Amino acid sequence: MIILDTALKQRALNNNPIRVGLVGTGAMGIGILNQITNHTPGMVVSAIFNRTIQKAIEAVKYAGISNYDVVGSKTQLENSILNYRTAILESPDLIQGSESIDAVVDVTGSIEFSANLVLKAIEAKKHIILMNAELDATIGPILKVYADKSGVVYTNVDGDQPGVEMNLYRSVKSMGFKPVLCGNIKGLHDPYRNPTTQKSFAEKWNQNPYMVTSFADGTKISFEQALVANATGMKVAKRGMLGPKVEEGAHLKDVFQDLYPKAYLEDGPGIVDYVVGAAPAPGVFVIAKNEDPRQHPYLDLYKAGKGPYYLFYNPYHLCHFEVPMTIARAVLFKDAAVSPLGKPMVDVIAVAKKNLNKGEVIDGIGGYMTYGLCENYEDSINNSFVPMGLAEGCTLTKDIKKDTPITYHDILQPANRRSDQLRAEQTNYFK
Question: What are the phi and psi torsion angles at 68 (to 5°)?
């Protein structure tokens, strides 16, 4: 990845920056905008769309951008780009219509809106950069099929946990190890948290309480680990993953040998999982096997242990700071940070957070009614489980007990959602 800085500097010297269309100016979107504008030579955010224009204006001001225009037509957008100004768009469709935009970055966390956005961008031959694990884990494999046909890169991002895990996974494989587990480190996991319990934390960090709830109740980590599974061919050891808890602050390198019985590591494609309470949080890790006994003395010398299982970890993830690197990888080298291999391996299913009643409309991700759990894809399909990403807006046709997975037999879906259509297409495509 170090080569990216050299390539970007050359783009800057050639006065030929990568031009980015940014969709979503929440906390992460603002961070990406600032990172590109003030710290990434050879790249510019040329166009921004947010559902509320005023929030987009506040975002550009936060990043120190004074030369911006609010535009409502393709001609206005192209003029703005030609004059090195930032265009704030009245419609997201303008991004797809611009010949100047190289890549679209989705930072919305939405499903239906983003399904339409991403599909149109792929058709317009824009590289797709997702900071939207929710969409990616739900219909990413079929969107990747469309992207491949269009000749563009479809990827999730460096910096967030899946991207950091995948970089570590690829590095470990390149050294001749066999990764058997890709893991995430969490400080808290309580599936019954809700926007009320998380309100003060969200306010402290200027975050959406629903998004913060999805972190606490395990939905977000389920989406993230599903992405890693779909990018590596790994599965989960059981519904919801194993998720061992350790003594608060215990360092992962000292305890990892005891967390996972070898039965989970020896056979099959490997597993994705998470650990609660370990240091270094909020890091990620890979457990990998080295099957060359000639290498074992060297690894022991280098303080990696006796083997044959070895721990590799990154003690942090820096989210939006590394997103420009993902954009550069896609545009300059056609390389994806995190992208589905093909058929989905792991799904994220909707489970009742409390007793639910017939006639209720599900409030969706990070809400009061459901949380998401990883399930192996074949089991999810065979049981007709409702994906967490598609649960919002569905009406229950029967009572559902707390902690029970919701099936398609239990709901009525909203009519004519593009995301539901793509999900059905994905199911049929990967039969």
Answer: -135, 160
* Distance (Å, whole) CA 418 – CA 113: 9
The answer on 129 and 166 residing in a single domain is no
The whole-number pLDDT of residue 116 equals 97
* CA dist., res. 72 & res. 46, Å (int): 14
Q: pLDDT (tens digit, 9 = 90+) per residue, 45-65?
A: 999 999 999 999 999 999 999
In this structure, the answer to whether residues 177 and 142 fall within a common structural domain is no
Same domain, yes or no: 325 and 298: no
Q: Is the pLDDT of residue 263 over 90?
A: no
Contacts of 78 (CB under 8 A, 6+ apart): 98, 99, 100
Given pLDDT bands bounded at 50, 70 and 90, which one contains residue 1? low
- Of 306, 333, 360, the residue at which a domain comes to its end is 333
Answer left, alpha or beta for residue 359, where phi above 0 means left and psi between -120 and 50 means alpha: left
Same domain, 183 and 309: yes
How far apart CA 121 and CA 190 sit, in angstroms, is 37
Asked if residue 244 and residue 154 are part of one domain, the reply reads no
The total of structural domains in the chain comes to 3
Look up the pTM and report it.
Answer: 0.96
Q: Provide mean pLDDT across the span 327-334.
A: 98
Given pLDDT bands bounded at 50, 70 and 90, which one contains residue 268?
confident
- Decide: 285 and 183 in contact? Cβ < 8 Å: yes
Cα-based angle 281, 312, 331 (whole degrees, multiple of 5): 90
Residue 207 neighbours by CB distance under 10 Å: 17
Backbone angles phi, psi at 66, to 5 degrees: -110, -20
Closest CA to 45 of 299, 235, 261, 324: 324
Strand partners, 376: 346
Residue 271 lies in a domain: yes
With cut-offs at 50, 70 and 90, classify the pLDDT of residue 83.
Answer: very high
Range of the domain at 87: 3-160+321-333
- CATH number of the CATH domain containing 52: 3.40.50.720
Residues 107 and 181 in one domain: no
Q: What is the DSSP string of 14-61?
A: TT--EEEEEE--SHHHHHHHHHHHHH-TTEEEEEEE-SSHHHHHHHHH
Q: Based on the domain organization, do 104 and 183 belong to the same domain?
A: no
Same domain? For 54 and 171 the reply is no
The answer to whether the beta carbons of residues 406 and 386 sit under 8 Å apart is: yes
**Is the residue at 249 inside a domain?**
yes
β-strand pairing of 18-23 with 103-106 = parallel
Is residue 339 domain-resident?
no
